[in-house]
Write a structure and sequence with these properties.
350 residues, alpha/beta, Rossmann fold, eight-stranded mixed sheet
């Protein structure tokens, strides 16, 4: 089953609405009053799945048709899919991720846009303030809690001196996270080793691109080789290219007994010790609310951008056990969720 098909099932299961995917037929004339919502996401992260769930919740009482496309981390694919979705003339296009937002804005010619699951619409040139933005769009954005994450790392490890930050140099948002991490790590007296992760095609000795599995293996090996032996923790901001390699990175980190802390709570289970970041179901609900305002007749230009900061802390006891680490009691008391030592998740503060 394709990623798009999985998402169709996901949102369909949540709201029970008729869905559109690929070549399926569009609404019949008798159904023409049912709004058509297109969703374009640029990344396979679990946080985007949460955002889809939030959109479904937001539309629970409002029948709609949904067409969902996933461009992965391919900008060219994102542009092509944005053009495809817009050619079908949906009532609203919701984008998830910075790349999806940027290409949809670039190729749009009149469709109302709701941009979501991005951190800096201002750096992307989509807005100058929450109230002053492109007339064809509104949206929901959130800034990763990098400062609080550096403070969390210091509280988890009071004597730690050196950490590594893995970032994607091709992504302006990721570069912004790195700049903030550099600044706030210094405040916490943490030496920050910067390690770039790039998905530029790697070639074999004959100059041919490596197959995907070997690409991933080579990327992870290159990143881990760049991390000095004295690094005591790895920090990952929420960058979709970096997070696509999360499983491999955390496995390699575990072999070196290095904890991993991230800003993406949705992906903590594969091997991260702790995650401090936005809860994307809320982001999706807010995007749905803005889309519904547009459907009710409010122009996007009159809907301010919303800074959504529903930050949660998730801890992973299973990883802590493997690291022979015990969370300080005050940190556990602050946690929104805790992954237990065996499987599943439990509320930390019921």
């Amino acid at each position: 089953m394709t990623v798009a098909a999985v998402l169709v099932v996901l949102i369909g299961a949540a709201v029970g609405y008729r869905l559109l995917s690929g070549g399926e037929s569009k609404s019949t004339p008798a159904e023409s009053d049912v709004p058509r919502i297109a969703i374009l996401r640029s990344g396979h992260g679990l946080a985007f799945d949460d955002a889809i769930k939030g959109i479904a919740v937001g539309f629970e009482s409002h029948p709609a048709d949904f067409e969902i496309e996933d461009a992965g981390n391919d900008p060219a694919e994102a542009r092509a899919l944005a053009q495809k979705l817009l050619a079908d003339k949906p009532d609203v296009l919701i984008t998830l991720g910075a790349a999806a937002a940027q290409v949809a804005a670039d190729v749009n010619a009149g469709c109302p846009l709701v941009v979501a699951a991005l951190s800096d619409p201002f750096a992307l040139g989509l807005a100058s303030s929450d109230e002053e933005h492109r007339a064809d769009l509104t949206g929901v954005y959130s800034s990763e809690p990098v400062e609080d994450t550096m403070s969390l790392i210091r509280q988890l490890y009071p004597t730690m001196t050196k950490i590594a930050a893995i970032y994607n140099p091709a992504d302006p948002e990721s570069a912004g996270y790195l700049q903030r991490a550099r600044q706030h790590a210094a405040v916490q007296q943490l030496l920050l080793q910067e390690v770039a992760l790039s998905r530029l095609p790697l070639l074999d000795s004959a100059g041919r691109p490596l197959e995907q599995a070997r690409q991933d293996e080579a990327i992870i090996r290159k990143v881990m080789d760049a991390i000095p032996a004295d690094v005591q923790l790895i920090y990952l901001a929420r960058d979709w290219v970096v997070l696509e390699e999360l499983d491999g990175l955390t496995k390699e980190a575990a072999l070196r007994n290095i904890p991993v802390v991230t800003n993406d709570p949705a992906t903590i289970s594969p091997g991260c010790l702790a995650a401090l970041g936005d809860e994307y179901v809320s982001v999706g609900r807010e995007a749905a609310r803005q889309a519904l305002s547009i459907l009710a007749g409010t122009p996007p230009a009159d809907i301010p951008l919303l800074a959504e900061n529903s930050v949660i802390l998730v801890l992973n006891r299973e990883v802590a056990q493997k690291l022979q680490y015990t969370f300080p009691a005050p940190i556990e008391q602050r946690a929104t969720r805790i992954v237990p030592a065996q499987s599943g998740t439990v509320p930390a503060n019921p």
